What we know:
Low-confidence stretches: none
Radius of gyration: 23 Å
Distance between the termini: 25 Å
Strand content: 25-35%
Amino acid sequence: xxxxxxxxxxxxxxxxxxxxxxxxxxxxxxxxxxxxxxxxxxxxxxxxxxxxxxxxxxxxxxxxxxxxxxxxxxxxxxxxxxxxxxxxxxxxxxxxxxxxxxxxxxxxxxxxxxxxxxxxxxxxxxxxxxxxxxxxxxxxxxxxxxxxxxxxxxxxxxxxxxxxxxxxxxxxxxxxxxxxxxxxxxxxxxxxxxxxxxxxxxxxxxxxxxxxxxxxxxxxxxxxxxxxxxxxxxxxxxxxxxxxxxxxxxxxxxxxxxxxxxxxxxxxxxxxxxxxxxxxxxxxxxxxxxxxxxxxxxxxxxxxxxxxxxxxxxxxxxxxxxxxxxxxxxxxxxxxxxxxxxxxxxxxxxxxxxxxxxxxxxxxxxxxxxxxxxx
Length: 375
């Protein structure tokens, strides 16, 4: 099981800032070739993609990404972000939990399974991209489009995103909410701060009227599949000088929405709020992701049983959190489960993962393969 840690360290050593794979997939391909996987590179624009498979029949796919977010101020890290330092059974580095650790666990799980079952039934495959943390335009989306056009199928997909919250395996995901961004400009009249009667301050208007209503609006109450839709203001910009009342205020907010509040419904509500307060405004909308939900099936049953076997806990099913590439994979008709490491340090300074968790995760992954392909 030391192989998992060594592979995770090698991947962490590579500063694969999205969408630059920087050689991570070459390491992975080298491992998969030894296991007699058929390797297909699917580069699109500046994105490196990999589709690897072996066997025929019912298909179980491991999906993940090699790209990472920037480390931030390196001086703030206790251990350098690209050295893969281990301290007290904890592996530190950018991508340790999101998601190079999971990738290593997947690959070693496949290696162990194939060594034990060299003539296994079914098809085992890997779908890996370097464009998940960025725009996600030329990554998994393009791979799935290619597979659909070739009439290939994925029956089951294990996505290695860091799903666990406090204990490995305590949470798995079978869906995600969508993401909708609004860039709102509220217009006023520019003037001298000493003569407010001759101007119209868009900041005052926005805060006391439009924004206050937006913040306090209940978009929906959620349902038995998804939590409620939420709205968060992420940016407010205005002003060019301390003694000038600005002519406009620019506000950026993001909606994480379920299958109750569609983008169209959200847009209508926001427009009605602006009109109710007689604001002069314009909005640009950006649909970043639509919600997806995967109905429970054989893969979910196998995942729950495997977690119960190794962790002695029953995982919670969850659809909250950020978006994932599951939204693209769902289009090929696969049952999807997201299962990975503890997510508490992802994208943070001192991102890390417990090495014992990585070894256990690999055992869980292997057990899931056996339950899905051999039963």
